[in-house]
């Protein structure tokens, strides 16, 4: 190769700076090393600026070892040298080496601290990142706007979120900065403080489409779907053009609130603006039609999409599963393989959910084998779906084995194993697992506490359940919702503690729903308290006139109390209002068929075979019972 060094060796440093800059554009490792060799030959290896540029070059286009060697060759290292090497350690996933280097640095500026905090955050060491943020200020280094944008992305605690915002205000860091303001809006939405997100949004001097997206997504994540749709309308009305993320969020809101009309309007906007070319948007629309009970529209849109990918296939598979079309879901899963579309973690999770709900255990284990073959058993999302499937099949021990092998356990995996134990009647183990979660796991969420309360209810652990319920808001920062109140109402009522149950109702921060009154009604009847029964039944009739529960409970109560006149009035009212009892059903998967049995159904498509099987089972049970009696009789004779 012809020498790149001029004949005179007194070439200025600017010549080599331009040459190194040329290396960045060429991206050729061979050329970079050739220039570096001649650069050392002419004695410029002592130049700190050029040394830093080579550390940067090798970090981007070379090997890690070359970059570290270039760093060590710099005789006089400045702050940029140290920061480049620190960033190199972080990018190489060597967090331990990064921390060691960070501690050895003679001077650490705000860039050094930001790099180390970001490194901890990227590797999932959130507590270390928070500790370093506090330490940074203790040694007198003022956080920058970038520091605060990192911290806002880490926070999941309301208390920590407010503290970081307060530090920003005290440090005179302006939240009107569009990037920082957007980060704060996103943070407050993530921790459930939508009002605070609005406060930041209104205080910002300049807004961009990301600001609107963050606010709309915060409303959606905070359960304020109508508010999200209203602000989407406001956004478009003042001339802010939505992007792909905006419409995909709005479509997700329509799915959540089951607003088909708004969903169709958003779909029309997507067609008009060409957003359907984005498969994330089209998959969200497939999901929206499915959730709004328009599966045929989901199928039509899916078939019209020319280029399928895993996103649209995932949405269609989950849509089929949502409507109980297990075999269509599994068929599409097979088609994905034929079309060389590799399934993602979400695909496998959806298929496992389908298998656990509707298919025989053999197909579930086949999917498990595929998960192992694809090396996805360590993914927490897939592992949680596997645990759920085995728990539904009754193989709790298999679910526990998967849980024990998980390297990282998020709250979803903890919730799955707690729910699996509870559903299979292992109630003491459910409470023990919850205590283990509190000791070594993440913060429990609404689902965790609901599952534990259900376990306390079914197991009759009144004191434990009452204690957990009383600590929900105070200790765990979770405001009880209807399902939590229903559970505690049922628990108290079953135990005959009706006064305590009514006291909880009186302290509710909102008006009790029909679900809450329904939970207490059945127990009023059981404990024979006519005054309570009538009061709760009439309240439930006003809240939910179509429900048959209050009429049936009142009728049963009056019949037991021999109040025939009142019984006739209730039955007449039920007939006049055309109130009908709910029909329960159960189903079972056998080979390639799903058999559904309704409680009021006397005839079935396979009724002859079913009754023959029942007759055989009845005969076998009688034989077993006679053998059991004879065995006991012989034992008594021997005694």
TrEMBL record:
Signal peptide per UniProt: none
Domain of life: Eukaryota
PPR-type repeats, residues: 109-143, 208-242, 309-343, 410-444
Pfam families to which the protein is assigned, alphabetical: PPR, PPR_2
The keyword Repeat belongs to this UniProt entry's keyword annotation: yes
Single Gene Ontology MF annotation: RNA binding
InterPro entries: PPR_At4g14850-like_plant (IPR046960), PPR_rpt (IPR002885), TPR-like_helical_dom_sf (IPR011990)
Name of the protein in question: Pentatricopeptide repeat
Record's keyword terms, sorted: Repeat
GO biological process: RNA modification
NCBIfam families hit by this protein: PPR
């Amino acid at each position: 190769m012809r020498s790149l060094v001029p004949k005179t060796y007194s070439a200025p440093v600017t010549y080599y700076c331009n040459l190194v800059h040329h290396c960045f554009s060429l991206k050729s490792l061979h050329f970079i090393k050739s220039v570096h060799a001649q650069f050392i030959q002419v004695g410029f290896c002592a130049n700190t600026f050029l040394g830093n540029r080579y550390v940067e070059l090798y970090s981007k286009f070379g090997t890690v070892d070359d970059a570290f060697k270039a760093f060590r060759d710099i005789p006089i290292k400045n702050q940029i040298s140290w920061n480049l090497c620190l960033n190199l350690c972080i990018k190489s996933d060597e967090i331990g080496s990064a921390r060691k280097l960070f501690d050895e640095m003679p001077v650490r500026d705000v860039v050094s601290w930001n790099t180390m905090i970001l490194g901890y955050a990227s590797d999932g060491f959130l507590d270390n990142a928070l500790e370093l943020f506090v330490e940074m200020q203790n040694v007198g280094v003022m956080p920058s706007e970038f520091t605060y944008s990192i911290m806002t992305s880490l926070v999941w605690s309301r208390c920590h979120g407010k503290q970081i915002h307060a530090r920003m205000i005290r440090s005179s860091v302006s939240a009107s900065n569009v990037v920082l303001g957007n980060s704060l809006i996103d943070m407050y939405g993530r921790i459930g403080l939508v009002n605070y997100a609005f406060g930041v949004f209104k205080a910002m001097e300049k807004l961009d489409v990301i600001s609107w997206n963050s606010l709309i997504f915060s409303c959606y994540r905070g359960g304020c779907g109508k508010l999200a749709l209203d602000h989407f309308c406001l956004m478009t009305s003042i001339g802010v053009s939505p992007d792909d993320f905006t419409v995909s969020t709005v479509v997700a809101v329509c799915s959540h609130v089951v607003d088909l009309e708004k969903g169709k309007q958003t779909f029309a906007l997507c067609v008009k603006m060409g957003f359907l070319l984005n498969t994330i948007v089209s998959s969200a629309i497939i999901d929206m039609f499915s959730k709004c009970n328009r599966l045929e529209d989901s199928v039509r849109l899916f078939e019209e999409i020319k280029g399928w990918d895993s996103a649209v296939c995932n949405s269609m598979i989950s849509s089929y599963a949502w409507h109980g079309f297990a075999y269509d879901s599994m068929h599409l899963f097979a088609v994905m393989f034929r079309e060389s579309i590799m399934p993602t973690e979400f695909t496998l999770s959806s298929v496992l959910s389908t298998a656990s709900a509707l298919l025989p255990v053999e197909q579930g284990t086949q999917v498990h084998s595929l998960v192992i073959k694809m090396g996805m058993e360590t993914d927490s999302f897939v592992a949680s779906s596997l645990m759920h499937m085995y728990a539904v099949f009754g193989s709790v021990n298999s679910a526990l084995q998967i849980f024990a092998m998980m390297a990282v356990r998020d709250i979803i995996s903890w919730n799955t194993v707690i729910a699996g134990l509870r559903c299979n009647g292992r109630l003491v183990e459910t409470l023990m697992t919850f205590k283990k979660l509190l000791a070594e796991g993440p913060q429990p969420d609404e689902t965790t506490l609901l599952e534990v309360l259900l376990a306390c209810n079914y197991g009759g652990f009144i004191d434990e359940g009452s204690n957990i319920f009383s600590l929900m808001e105070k200790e765990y920062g979770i405001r009880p919702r209807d399902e939590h109140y229903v559970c505690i109402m049922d628990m108290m009522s079953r135990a005959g503690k009706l006064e305590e149950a009514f006291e909880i109702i009186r302290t509710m921060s909102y008006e009790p729903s029909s679900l809450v009154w329904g939970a207490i009604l059945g127990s009023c009847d059981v404990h024979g308290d006519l005054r309570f029964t009538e009061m709760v039944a009439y309240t439930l009739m006003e809240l939910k006139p179509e429900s048959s529960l209050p009429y049936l409970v009142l009728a049963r109560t009056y019949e037991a109390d021999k109040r025939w006149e009142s019984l006739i009035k209730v039955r007449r009212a039920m007939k006049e209002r055309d109130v009908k009892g709910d029909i329960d059903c159960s189903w079972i998967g056998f080979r390639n068929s799903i058999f559904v049995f309704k409680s009021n159904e006397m005839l079935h498509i396979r009724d002859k075979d079913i009754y023959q099987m029942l007759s055989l089972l009845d005969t076998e049970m009688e034989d077993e019972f006679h053998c059991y009696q004879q065995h006991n009789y012989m034992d008594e004779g021997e005694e």
